[in-house]
Queue: 3 jobs
Job 1
Amino acid sequence: MIIREPNKATVNILGKDHSGPSGGHLACQGCGGALSLRMALKAIGNRCIFVIPACCMAVIDGPFPVSSLGVPLMHIAFGATAPTATGIKAGLTTQGDNETLVVAWAGDGATFDIGLGAVSAAADRNDDYLYVCYDNEAYMNTGIQQSGATPKAAWTTTTPNKKPKTSIKKDIISIMAAHRIPYIATASPSHPDDFLRKFQKAKEIKGFRFLHVFAPCPPGQRFEEKNTVKVARNAVESRVFPLLEIENGEKLTLTDIPDPIPIKEYLELQNRFAHFKNEDIEAFEKNIEKRWQELSEWNRKQT
């Protein structure tokens, strides 16, 4: 367990002393997770404490004791993100601090899989903090292994083309909605106004809030670094990643209803889908259309 106070120490890195603000982060070029985190901090400000489990972001923010985030943060074990955030919030409350925002920032592996039970428990208690899942659809930091967020038949190192993943992506939004928590939203760095508004809204709500962020990964999803925002935008415009809000587990609002582009335009940018045949594309499209119709029907019931 590592607690970092940002920008308050001198550390020797590669034979040079570095002190004060970090000069940058350690993300891959075109990292959608780093872009999303920068936007999130822009929305919520620096009156916050981050909890980050084992994931890409635990490396990206820089070597101890310097952090590129510019806010206090705690590195924690893979499955302990949610209870650690709960404990930090309880400590702040005991001290009379009701203003500092606690943010759990975890990847899909720590959220969809390893930490799901703990996330569910925190949601069930309606613990008062913001949980953010930045989703790049695999365990990217440890070698691009499949996670519960990996799309059906997408390439990963543990689901090569000859042995594809057989299950569809886990529906984390419906799982969280079943807990009837105050606020759930999806966000994409390709839609910054929508992204910032949702983070600002979540900041002001009390209770457990869950934000699901689509964070394209160039090496893991196998696309050119320059296409990060385009991949994210195509995910929204093809309806692969719908932008929505759910309040109290009941009221669903689609915050963007695009005229859909062909699913193929989303798939063809990413070499993890390069082995798809026409029947694979059709099956992928069928699952996406089914989910969109379910969400649209839910949305219509609110109007």
Note: The chain has one domain: 2-9+24-301.
Job 2
Amino acid sequence: MCGIVGIRDAGGVSFSIYYALYALQHRGQESAGISTFDGTRLFKHKGQGLVAEVFDSAILESLEGNVGIGHVRYPTTGANRPENAQPFNFAFRDHTISIAHNGNLVNSRQLRDEYECRGQIFCSTTDTELIAKVITEEMSNSGCIEDAVHRCMRVLRGSYSVVMMIDGVLYGFRDPLGIKPLCLGRTQKGLIIASESVAVDALGGTFLRDVAPGELICIDGEGMRSMQIARASRRAHCIFEYIYFARADAVLDGALVYDVRLRIGAKLHEEAPVQADSVCPVPDSGTAYAVGYSARSGIPFMESLLKNRYMGRTFIMSTQNERERAVRIKLNPIRKHLENGAVVLVDDSIVRGTTSRRIIGIMREAGAREIHVRIGSPSIVAPCYLGVDMPTREELIAHRRDEEEVRRHITATSLHHVTIDALVESIGIGRENLCMGCLTGTYPVDIPGEVSSPVAVDFLDGTYQTRLEKFGTGKE
């Protein structure tokens, strides 16, 4: 669930990376880091906290160079420890290397055991360090970064989008299934690789395209080259990116997330219409869904829960106690909008159910007479192993409960989750090209103890295929 960015620019990059990370802050709030390279030396700074807490102007000015990478972290593999903050920086055979990663490897324990049996040591508990081990080992054999990434795609199992800097050359690559997002953009004097297009927007840049699954991007002083290293028989884009995790104004694999959520909101009304006085979102994750529901139903859109804008995303807080305590601070009811009213309450998902129950309680205390809950995702019945911090099955409210049982638990007047067919139609990507493991319990990679439908991957022995531009020319 992390956010990554890499930039090469004719001017300094530290402030640009900072602004890009700010735009990606929703992807991780535990730690932040930036590494830059000036042609000779590597500069770095990272720490625990939000981007604005980790960096200030003096620190950014000290990060010299025209190429760099950045990271904001929320952990799926690896505990909340200072040594797990990224990017990771190290020297290898006279090379200066920095790497950052978004995703989750399902074979990280197996790979770590193999490397430790060969005498390798680790300074962190993250799977990003494992990716670095694979790359440096292959580089020691062939001396070729393309071969190293080829090796990564053969041995890593799971989701990974990676930005990497080696001796001032910027690289980015994405797993062959395209599970986690990665895109390419142009800034005024350079190029940017980032988790979401919103990072490009933050710099006033131009979104060019998504990095293709299985593609390696190389950006140096001459421009950009790309190589298709692996090609899968189908893709497995994370469906939860569209439901919740990506920012609504992001473009992911050709789909504007806001429009996807509008369409889902309209489907919610079509599937489960109800008489009500107003449509209210759970801010901010439910807003686009509620707008779509209101437009299709004709029921007025009305904010009846006011969000404290200085709160983070409660879904990615570390413990359930923190999430529950945060709800009252985060959301305050507007009593005048709720008194004796029938309200359609729209949110993106129900995971554990405790937050939904608490929100409904707050609205009832404020005077709401009926609360009809409409959810922009199908029931979440299985954990995620590929980069979203979903809990165990036992913690999921929809595990072994039907919709009526969930409705009673959260105390809603009525409850409806969008159907899988309506969700897929709203995204506009075929069901076969989406990872829906958390909704179906069937995963696109082999996971011990789970049902899987693995995707076949072909590995290509190609050469760099395209040169995008010279810096500053603005021409492809």
Note: DSSP finds 16 helices and 28 strands in the chain.
Job 3
Amino acid sequence: MQKEIETRFLEINKDELVKKLLLLGAIDKGEEKLEEMIFHATDGSWVGKNKFVRLRKTKNKIKLTYKENVEQTVDSAREIELEVSDFDKCSKFFEKVGLKAMRQLEKLRHTLELGETTVDIDTWPKIPTYAELEGPSVESLKNACGQLGLDWEKRFDGDAREVFRHYGYDIDKITVVTFNEFK
């Protein structure tokens, strides 16, 4: 599995961050809506274990990801990711092999690339906008933070599930997180 090195900064001012990134020469990849389905083992053994399968649809691609993150540190996440061609067939396949759709999600993601660091600015329903920085090393993330004026000590190393928990939502008890519905 590939190691994922990322961290988040909560409650950012999106317009200010985008402006700063562009002034630093970042490449603006644009904003798009992401639609996701999160799958867990049907026996419930993955719930609360920071382990899941995600099926994500963007305007150009459908990606399938197995992800686990036991420690919730800047470099503890592990993932396997690949592209698939059919969202619905993949979803049905998971159900047949013992995975259950636990949650439907959507968010807006604005992506910018600053050197070797990807900055995703995520806007979800019900929680403040935050930035996720991902790069090849912890040092690359620290360097990007320095350029952006982000205090490394104020980072949030938890995943999106932990971000929702930070704002008082237990995402394991919510089945729909969309801009039209939250239950």
Note: Helices lie at 14-23, 87-96, 138-148, 160-166.
